[in-house]
Design goal:
The chain is mainly beta. The protein has helices at 245-248, 332-338, 346-361, and strands at residues 7-8, 10-11, 22-23, 31-32, 138-144, 160-166, 203-207, 213-217, 225-233, 238-242, 251-262, 268-274, 277-282, 300-309.
C-alpha cells in the first residue's frame, strides 16, 4: 500500500515487513531506528529485477534521502557499495551539483583506492577538477608521501591555486608528447626558489617584426657567473672604474675578469683590480702615442666584468635526473574505467523522478 504524503511510522522493533504506515506529526515519511546490536540496520531493502531500485526518495523542498551518523558512536551518514563494475555512489543534477560533500572541521569529500585512482574528474566541456580556496588557502593541494612520512609543516604562499608537494620526490610533474608540458602566464612571471635544471636548451621567445616569434638562446657555462657591463673614459691616460655595489654584493669580488673595448686609437689594459673596482691605463707607444702625450688621452672605452656567483661553488656539478617511468603506468583498462562511458542523462533522471512523485500523489 502506498503511504500518503506527510505520514510515517516510528519503527523500533525487531526487523519486520512494513505494509502500512501511520501519520507522523513532523512530516516524516518514514523513521526507522536500528537495534543496539552490532551491525544493526535502520533500513534494509533489496530491489529485484532489471532496473529495480532498493531505496528511492523524493522531496519537494528538502532532501530526497538523508543519512546522519550520530555521535559519539555513529559513523558514516551514507555509505554506498557498488557491484564490481558499478559506482558505489552516483549523483546526477541538471543545474546544480551531482554530488556535494561538506565538513566543518574535516574533509568535505574523501576518495580512496587500494590499487587505482582515489579521485578522478572528467568533463565534456570545462574542468575535470575544480578547486576553490578562501583567503590564505590553496585551491588544489597534492602531496606524495614516503612509506614513513615525517610530520612537517606545510609551506606555501597564501592565495595559491595549485600546490604540489613531495618530501623526497617530485612535487608537480607535467608531460606532453607533442604540446607544452606546462604553461605559466603572470604579470610578474615565474618565481623559482632553488636551482633550475634544464636538459634541453634555454631560450627567450621574442616577437619578430614580421609578426612571428623567434628564439634567442642563452650562453651556457660550466660555472655560475654574473656579469655587468658599462662605459667609461680615460682622463690623462687612466680611469678608475668602481664596481656597482649591488653587483659586488652578489659575487665573489676577490677574483673577477675584466674585458675592455677601446673606442679610440688607444691600447688599454687593466692595471689594478680591487674588491670595489679596477684601474684602466693606456699603453704608451701604441698608435704613435708617446709618453709625453699619454696624459692628454681622453679616449672612451667599454668594459665587461665577469665574476663567480657568491655561494655557488664547483664546475660541472652532477645532477641525478629521476626516471619519470619508475611508477607503474596506467593500463588501457585503467584508462577505460576513468573515462565516462557517456553523458549522464541528468534531465531524464529528474523527469522520471517527477513522474514518480506525481504517480504517488494520485489516489489508488
Amino acid at each position: 500500500m502506498t503511504a500518503p504524503l506527510n505520514q510515517g511510522v516510528n519503527q523500533t522493533q525487531s526487523p519486520t515487513t512494513l505494509a502500512n504506515v501511520a501519520p507522523s506529526g513532523d512530516g516524516t515519511a518514514l523513521y526507522l531506528l536500528a537495534s543496539q546490536r552490532p551491525g544493526g540496520r535502520g533500513l534494509y531493502s533489496v530491489g529485484y529485477g532489471t532496473g529495480g531500485v532498493a531505496v528511492e526518495g523524493y522531496s519537494y523542498n528538502a532532501d530526497g534521502i538523508r543519512g546522519v551518523g550520530v555521535p559519539p558512536f555513529g559513523r558514516v551518514g551514507v555509505s554506498g557499495i557498488g557491484a564490481p563494475t558499478s559506482p558505489g555512489v552516483q549523483g546526477t543534477s541538471i543545474e546544480s551539483r551531482g554530488v556535494e560533500g561538506s565538513s566543518t572541521n574535516d574533509i568535505g569529500v574523501w576518495g580512496h583506492s587500494n590499487n587505482s585512482v582515489g579521485v578522478t574528474g572528467t568533463t565534456a566541456g570545462r574542468f575535470g577538477v575544480f578547486g576553490v580556496a578562501s583567503t590564505n588557502g590553496a585551491g588544489v593541494y597534492g602531496t606524495a608521501l614516503p612509506p614513513s612520512p615525517i610530520h612537517r609543516p606545510l609551506f606555501y604562499p597564501p592565495d595559491t591555486g595549485v600546490v604540489g608537494d613531495s618530501e623526497r620526490g617530485t612535487g608537480i610533474y607535467g608531460h606532453s608528447d607533442q604540446g607544452w608540458a606546462a604553461r605559466f602566464e603572470g604579470g610578474q612571471g615565474v618565481l623559482i626558489q632553488g636551482p633550475l635544471a634544464v636538459t634541453g636548451v634555454k631560450s627567450a621567445v621574442v616577437e619578430h617584426a614580421d609578426g612571428s616569434h623567434r628564439r634567442l638562446y642563452c650562453i651556457e657555462s660550466p660555472e655560475s657567473w654574473f656579469e655587468d657591463v658599462g662605459e667609461a673614459r680615460l682622463e690623462n691616460g687612466r680611469a678608475e672604474v668602481a664596481l656597482d655595489p649591488d653587483f659586488a654584493a652578489t659575487v665573489d669580488s676577490s677574483d673577477y675578469q675584466v674585458f675592455l673595448t677601446s673606442y679610440g686609437p688607444t691600447c688599454l689594459y687593466v692595471a689594478h683590480r680591487r674588491s670595489d673596482g679596477f684601474e684602466v691605463q693606456a699603453i704608451p707607444g701604441f698608435e704613435d702615442v708617446a709618453n709625453e702625450n699619454l696624459n692628454a688621452l681622453t679616449s672612451a672605452f667599454g668594459y665587461r666584468v665577469l665574476a663567480a656567483r657568491k655561494g655557488v661553488p664547483g664546475r660541472f656539478e652532477r645532477v641525478q635526473i629521476p626516471d619519470p617511468m619508475s611508477a607503474e603506468p596506467l593500463s588501457p583498462s585503467d584508462w577505460e574505467r576513468l573515462r565516462p562511458s557517456g553523458p549522464i542523462d541528468a534531465a531524464g533522471a529528474a523527469s522520471a523522478a517527477a513522474d514518480e512523485v506525481r504517480r504517488q500523489q494520485q489516489p489508488e
